[in-house]
Amino acid sequence: MSRIIEDVACTLCGCVCDDLNITTQGGRIVAAEHACPMAEPWFLKQAGNAAAVTRFEGKPATLEQAILHAADILRNSRAPLIYGLSRSSTPGQRAAVRLADQLGATIDTTASTCHAPSIVALQTVGESTSSLGEVRNRADLVVYWGANPVVSHPRHLERCVDAPGMFAPRGRADRRVVVVDVQETASSELADDYIEVAPGSDFEVIWALRAILNNTPLRREANFGGLSLEKLEWLADVLQSCRYGVFFFGLGLTNQGVAHANVESLLRLTTDLNAHTRFTARRMRVPGDVAGADSVLCWQTGFPFSVNLSRGFPRYSPGEYSANTLLEREEVDAVVLVGSEGVEKLSPQAQEQLRTLPCIALDYPQPQDAFPATACSATPCSATTLRSETTLSPTVQITTAVYGIHRAGTAYRMDEIPIPLRPVLTSTLPSDEEVLNAIGRAIRQHNP
Length: 448
Ligand code: SF4
Known about the structure:
- The protein has helices at about 40-45, 65-75, 90-105, 115-125, 130-140, 150, 155-160, 185-190, 200-215, 230-240, 250-255, 260-275, 290-300, 325-330, 350-355, 375-380, 380-385, 430-445; strands at about 5-10, 20-25, 30-35, 55, 60, 80-85, 105-110, 140-145, 175-180, 195, 225, 225-230, 245-250, 280-285, 305-310, 315, 335-340, 360-365, 395-400, 410, 420.
- It is α/β, with parallel strands linked by helices and about 450 residues long.
- It has two domains: about 45-115 and about 290-445, Rossmann fold, CATH 3.40.50; about 115-285, Dimethylsulfoxide Reductase, domain 2.
- A nine-stranded mixed sheet has the order 5-4-19-18-17-6-7-15-16, with helices on one face. A five-stranded parallel sheet has the order 10-9-8-13-14. Strands 1-2-3 form a three-stranded antiparallel sheet.
- The radius of gyration is 23 Å and the shape is globular.
- Bound molecules: iron/sulfur cluster.
- Iron/sulfur cluster binds near residues 38, 39 and 153.
């Protein structure tokens, strides 16, 4: 018998759309209404009876045995690292911080390899923020800077630009959309204006805009990142003459040049614009609940990522305590991966070092796990592959339940609004929270 669950939240990207209607039948998801083309195939591959993979040194183990082996590894470690967290949810992230505190470990999230420069920049100069609801209701100017939401966040335009709002009743018709990027994209094709800047010159362009807004004379014949002064004066006029504007900036701004200086300059430009109109800036967060990982680490340790707890109190030092740097410097002797997808973003040297270390990997079942039990037993290899197996061979592997599919939880949207997650399928898989707490208890039983 089929069942329809309304207003389900999707955690595949930072939009966390919470208006999906999910139809389940026979322990599977058979329809995902309102899911974008990126999310729909993922939902349709989820199953309640996804195969549980629990292994120690490549051999099948029970969950209890795997937890005891994990506890042994961490008890004997002097410099453990807990890394990942963006595919988790608030309960799992909180359990990871608790375990890091117990171990005196370093804890780092996937933010350290993507939006870390943005976080450092906003800690330096502050940020003028808004919720996505505020943007939808009030914005008449939306600027995507170094972001291609049509590909990375497929429903972002639908929800923030096309949707009618209180002060933009005709939706898209009441808003101007500007895309600033180094090359034309699917998003720039939908924009009213496309501004092409030379690669690596965002900082120069933004500071020229600041100079114009602050009446600082600039040489008329000069060229600013491929843009003439006339073009920049036009853009400055568009920015300051709107009623409510927002910058949505992406990895295009943080992945080149002096990344945190790029973001810092955009945040300062936003502050300047608030002398003329209302303007805000928001990050286009990468897939998963990385905003939630920042938030949980902040409320538990005071810092959003790259936190070392070895002295019994939190020390924050991006770079020094970033997973990538610690691995490259060989300053880690055991690793807990709470979701192994972030491993691909580590440098080849860090990945190489990771392969030499005792490693405990907690992963969601991969889509090919989502077969009925009969199919699993017929195809044991393909049905029991974990993501971590494609990049490394963890010492301990445990499949955990998917928040928002098998378990309740909380995911933070890109505007840091917490969205509740509800289970839509029944599963016996343990959550990462339960596994991490069990590892912590097993360690305490040996070291009371
Ligand atoms: S836009 Fe993002 S959150 Fe919304 S349905 Fe698509 S993948 Fe999911």
